Amino acid sequence: MHSKPNVDRGHMFECPTCDSSQVYTETVQHKFTYGVGDTAVDLTCQLPVRVCENCGGRFIDEVGEMVRHETVCRHLNRLTPGEVLRIRENCGTQAAFGELTGIGEASLSRWETGASIPSKAYDCYLYLLTYPENLHRLQAQASRLRSESEAPRAHQFQCIQITEARLSQQRCFSLRRTA
Ligand SMILES: [Zn+2]
């Protein structure tokens, strides 16, 4: 009835309970419930479980947590942390991506580490950015806005330059008036 567990001894881990370094990985079919009430669903994934040969302890670490998180993302039809990371890295750093898209670095960090899942709106936005032409549109828009915001500054700079001359003109003018 039970299929033979998939055991991996290629990389051994340390046991957090007994400090033994004889902890191997067993990949098991894992069923868990996501959601509450009417929206609760049973999801299934292939979960890597760390098993200690010394004390018999069984553990799920961050790799297992990520497998569960990705299963939830797929169920919700949202981008997984790895997919968000790849989309963002096309643009460079989180700061550069945030500057272009308006998406905060804190949000990016949470999605990339799996601490939270993008909302439907953000998921759609990020999905559209997987198309290079959409990224290019945003970049073109950003450089247009930059050049527009530089134009009035150049104008102000011209005004300041001629202020000195105008000031002395005004002084002469006011002297004449009071004379
Ligand atoms: Zn142990």
Order of helices and strands: EEEEHHHHHH
Helix/strand class:
alpha+beta
**Rg, Å, rounded:** 30 Å
Q: How large is the share of residues in beta strands?
A: 15-25%
Strands across the major sheet, in which order? 1-2-3-4
Reported for the largest beta sheet, the result is: 4 strands, antiparallel
Q: Give start-end ranges of low-pLDDT stretches.
A: none
Number of helices: 6
**Number of DSSP strand runs:** 4
Helix content: 40-55%
Overall pLDDT, averaged? 88
Span from first to last CA? 112 Å
Q: What would you call the shape?
A: elongated
Small-molecule components bound = zinc ion
Would you give an account of this structure?
With 179 residues, the chain is α+β, with helices and mostly antiparallel strands. The protein has a domain at 1-76. Helices cover 54% and strands 19% of the residues. The protein has helices spanning 62-76, 81-89, 94-101, 105-113, 120-128, 132-178; strands spanning 6-13, 23-34, 41-52, 58-59. Helix 2 (81-89) packs across helix 4. It is elongated and about 95 Å long. It binds zinc ion (ZN). The site of zinc ion has 8 residues, from loops.
